[in-house]
Structures
1.
Amino acid sequence: MKLHEYQAKEVLARFGVPVPKGRVANTPDEAEAIAKELGGKVVIKAQAHTGARGKAGGVKVANDPAEAKKYASEIIGMTLVTHQTGPQGLPVNSVLVEEAIDIDREIYLSVAIDNTPGRPVIIASSQGGMDIEEVADKTPEAIVKTLIDPACGFQPYQGRKLAFAVGLDGEHLNAASALIGNVAKAFLESDGVIVEINPLVVTKDGRILAADAKFSIDDNADYRQKDLVALQDRSQEPEKELEAHDAGIQNYVKLDGNIGCLVNGAGLAMATLDALKFAGGDAANFLDIGTANSPDAVVSALKIIGSDPDVKAVLVNIFGGLARTDIIAEGTIQAIKQGFVTQPVVVRLAGTNVELGSKILDESGVDLGRADGFAEAARMAVAAAK
Amino acid sequence: MGVLMDENSRVVVQGFGGAGQREAMTGRDYGTNIVCGVTPGRGGQTIEGFEVLNTVREAVDKYDANISLIFVPAPFAADAILEAADAGIPTAICITEGIPTLDMMRVKRALAGSKTRLIGPNCPGVINPAARSRAGIMPVDVYLEGSVGVISRSGTLVYEAVDQLTRLGIGQSGSVGVGGDPIIGTSQREALELFEADPDTAAIVLIGEIGGTAEQEAAEYIKQMSKPVVAFIAGATAPPGRRMGHAGAIIAGAAGTAAAKQEALRAAGAAVVENPGDIGSTMQRVLQETGLA
């Protein structure tokens, strides 16, 4: 789950990470009031789950409260389209109103999980304000990393090492080292997936501030991060995905094609998208039904797929392990009989209880495409969608 | 032989609820020596002919259990893995999906240097068809005794690959599901090392996914392997930045793409399959070309 910039900064501030003065505004009037309170020049920043907001017109500098109100009225309600959002863009329902800062230098700082050692890694670079992938590509020597040992946690020497490496020495050393430790602490205590501060700035008046912040939380830790989960802004999620989530289907991703997919297992679900591509088609979604303990779960999933206007055909591809093919067959037939799926359906069942599952399909009286193998199922689904 | 399991495997099922009981029965029917279940507070009961104990330590003391198969729910799974390690279990296989990544970070640190190997979490487990020994959730009917080892991040793709092989009459020496999470106990590379060292394995199918760099690390090892490897990477058509079901399956950088992984594997000498329907037939061709068939 992703947080908005203002939420990320609130979380970081709670852990002692300095951020610019400011607050979120949901209306132009609120923006004006906050600008008055802050005094002087302010920055109005669109709150949406994407980077590159400035280029898309989502960030403006206002000289006075009246201008802050004007810019806020332009930005709130806009649809922000960036290379990260896709052509449909993301709605902007609020703006962050912050003091304008005079920047001396920009640094990059992030914490994420390094899968191979299985430890959090702190990444810093003197090349702040740029896309870190690009920095890694062009000037890899400008990036420094250090792993956190889960047993002893972040150590001050690690903060100093990174601070020296990115030029935050001298008068900045202690503050920078403490700040890096506090970001690591925020990451660990919030079940972070990534915290990225880009840029971390040194201001002309000598302060170090997190000028921007991205924060993602581990979905698997939802049960123990309730305060953060409560911050979720549903307007930033695709509608079909929210619908799926509310129906108890965690693993649904909307895609651009026209073949609806119901698959068990994330790997097989991904491979199904690949197989469709090879057969000349494109999936309308990724959906991992998981274990599917009841036909109802299958019906709910097919309801979401069937009601997607992009879907021209449906492919059910199941290789039962823990999941039982008879339950999938039962749910598929119910969903079709109840009218939730009106598109042509191709079913491929294999694995646990496949004889029973096939029998249920055979005796249902429902007209289905039946495939034995994986590639064949993909070809039939592509043909059915044409 | 085979890897991780054989005729001498004695499996305790940790978390003896519905799924644990069902898979214990399937395993027993297949021929596996499932010695008991463990559910704290339920000690003394007998369920479906299995004795239920309170702790893994009791399972080790009473039955000399040497594999723990873990179904404990995600919020408590890290604790269960550490309990198995504390009891001295050599191989802990964790099926549980949805464990917070930071829990696994601590578990991995705690297991470093211990004598317990962890497989998973979020995996289908391990099987040795020759020994009819299974600690996992895979459907047993698709397996055929033979000499191909199968390694996968995904459970259902193990079944898919095994099914394709079996339909062509190519049997398996075993399969190891390493798990779909960002932090796992045994990497693809380590699983390759096990099959490379196994005299009953002639060739290996490796099934990776988008996200992370584990396939590149596996490719480094493939360079020095004596046995042929057929590899498939799931998610070639997945959009970047989206988590595709598995917490580990997200393209977050150039190294995480299917193309980068395929390239590394090809360069290492693996036969890379692009269409997931061609895994079995590619192995058939490789076995013929290398004279192993």
2.
Amino acid sequence: MTLTVSLATLMAGIVIGYLWQRSRSCSISGYRDLFLFRDTLFMRTIIGMALGALTGYLLFYRFTPLMSDFPLYLHNEPGANSLSTLILAAIGGLGYAFFSVLAEGCSLRHHVNATTGNGMSIFYLLGFYSGVLFYWLIVSNIVDILIRLF
Amino acid sequence: MKVDKLTAGFFTGLWAAIAQAWVGVLPPSAFGICFISHPSDLFNWTVNRIFGTSFYVHDPSLDLPVLTVLGVLIGASLATIQHKEFKFRMPRNPLDHYLNGFMVAVFGLMLGYCSVHIIMGLTYGSLIAATGFAGMMVGVALAVLYIKWSARR
């Protein structure tokens, strides 16, 4: 099963990487351009993702037990009744979006752009993976303490 | 060959549903694609294997990691090579970009979602994703105000 997951995610990743490179898609520039210029071009990616996901979830949830918790808010979502989790999600979302707008793109877009030789994305990814290491070494412990306290 | 943004987005969203329904990329639910958790899982899984550490990985990556990141790098490279678009461009302020990437990873892991995954979470009806999305909209608004303020200076 895990080999299936690895191979399937690899294959899907190849298709998604190709499509996102050819379409110059981004999942954060849509909001930025809408707020900054009232431009909706990049919102097409976000609308497409929402339509694709909703179509898939609605199609599949009747036929597979793996989607028995759809929609999640009606099925006792893990962590959703904890105020500290919701506060962390709000702070995390705020910080993620703020720095993504300053970085001129979402993390998926930078992975794609790095393959074109874009130095900005290459330095972004160096910082990104340093941040992953920093989070699991330091920040995750602080987050755990905060969740236990509140 | 140009691809429409709507098409790229639609396939990405549909894959998230297929990944859960047919491939079994869960728990958590709506985890079919994430460019915070999947890179973190691949990175942590590799570090754990090499150095014997025990950094956190999600359930689907316990034995073998999800390879979405590797796939995207391969797929985007194929498109780049096919259309002869590779050209190394050195940025003017590399440290700024490094710090932006660093902060995105830290805040993204705190949230547990990226801006792609959060759309999947929202459409799946997650309250945590909805809260994170509200935070994201505030973050975008603040960043836009900051950009406008910087431009006026």
3.
Amino acid sequence: MMKGDIFFNLSLRSVRLNFLRSMLAAIGIVIGVVAIASMGMLGTNMQLEVKEQLSATANTIVISSDTVRMGPPGFTPSSSTASGVTKSELTKIVSVVGSNGTVIPIYSTDGEFTINSLAGRGSIYGIDPGDIGKFLTLNQTYGNGTIDIGAGEVLVGADLADDFNLKVGTRIRIGSFTSSSRPELRIAGVLQPRGTVADGISTDNGIVVNSQWYTDQFGGKDEWTQVNVIVKNVDDISDIESALDAKINTNAKTPSVRITDASSQLATETSTLSTVTTFIMAIGGISLLVAAVSIFNVMMMSVSERIQEIGILLSIGTEKGEVRRMFLYEAFILGLLGAGIGGVSSLLIGYTVVDAMIGTTAYLFQPASILYVPAAMAVGVVVCVISGMYPAWRASNMDPIDALRSE
Amino acid sequence: MTDTPLIQLVDVTKTYHLESGDFTALDHVFLDIKENDFVAIMGPSGSGKSTMMNQLGILDVPTSGKLFISGREVATMSNLERTHMRRDTIGYIFQKFYLIPLLSAYENVEYPLILKYKKRDTSGKASVLLEQVGIDKDMSEHRPTQLSGGQQQRVAIARALVNDPKILLCDEPTGNLDSRTGYQIMDIVCGLHKEGKTVILVTHDPKIAEYAHRTIRLVDGRIAAS
């Protein structure tokens, strides 16, 4: 219907006649559409990636000491001596969980380490060698490693191994160059990458040591930073959590431990990510605002160049609404042009950005992500049409006599 | 039928408010134009010819007095009604042709049909009219800028006729043409008058005015002779 419309044809010919100018104006829309679509896609892909990774540890309950609430005013928890989950609490956990899951007590702290002349920083986890295999696996491409680490041995995360070019058998010293004691340990294995996880054990840039060695080095024996419970059936998770809460947090006003799982962390992370995404998209939206100004400008030029033509149209009986429609079509065509190019570009740019920043494009074509492209295109077209409204109104309200007389 | 004039001006005055003061372009004009009249309007520059044409073409309304076209008082009509009357009752032929530059000759002629029927024309009326005014099929595909002045004016005449208007307003139709082409155009206009159109012609060329059956002289916004 639109194709046969004489006013659409007139607009199309006008755009063609001033193609360079029209394209320049449309570039603003292209940039706006690309900004909104690719940022939206990036944010959504991050959320999907986090969701996927967190759901891998969805069966894990994390019990940590509620140090913030337990400490008196002015109390600063220090990494090794802060009271953690106590032995009696651990016993209660074990008795509640029973055969419904596996209980893994874990020590952790932040620390520095050195490899030859290079220094690094990361989390140091102290875990009983018997528990390590219950949730961590080795990547054997770095050398034939073992999970059963002794006192002088350590497991390192995948990113750490790549950054420092580590292999099984390399030596690593715990502590900074200035530390008085820098015990040397042998790398017994490299762990598989875990990504973002909800169980509090981010080993990719960290190291895992024998729990015995950990308490010898850092102290704090039987005061675990956290206790992870891997439940057998994920559907039982909330029942077990309430049972644990009832048994350990006997004083409701001052609970002694905090019990969390992936779902609460997922909610926090995705809401943070979506806030950031919205913010970045809003910045992209500003570029559309700038584009709107340039479309407005080009439309005003088009109107003032065609005053005599508008005069002809009006004098031989064209309705005001029809003149308005002609100029709105012109803005619409500019919008389609910009949105079309923008849509294709945002697919390409979105793919590249997502691939570079997230490392996978597995989620790119999921509806939640890919729908940003048509949505941004629609916004671009709407912005164009809105920008064309005033110029179109102005054209339709010209006095035909004055318009005819203008050269 | 011929008793009621097709066009009737009753005490029409048109005043423009300029910075240098008010300027009266038409001064208490009375005029009747009957159906199938052929009227030439003559007069020096500034005598009110253009203002008169704008009134007759209902592009403008009188400051005072009444203008009736087909029995309807123009000032009481809505904007849209006036637009529709321009489209359906009046055909315009301008000195500068005023074809729509982005449309081909054929589309220019088809355009008023589209305005009236809100769809592309399938009746072939535009092609028939173009042929009648001497524009062949090949030429009708061209844009106005690719046509000579005479050809453009022929296209403009076909455009003016396509909605079968009662009134033809010709504003110096030969003013931009050489005399030979001018006479050819006037022959077409005379033919249209014979077919029953009411023709109103503005010109300052007495030879062209001779085609008309009645000549009105305007001086300072008044009718000096009729």
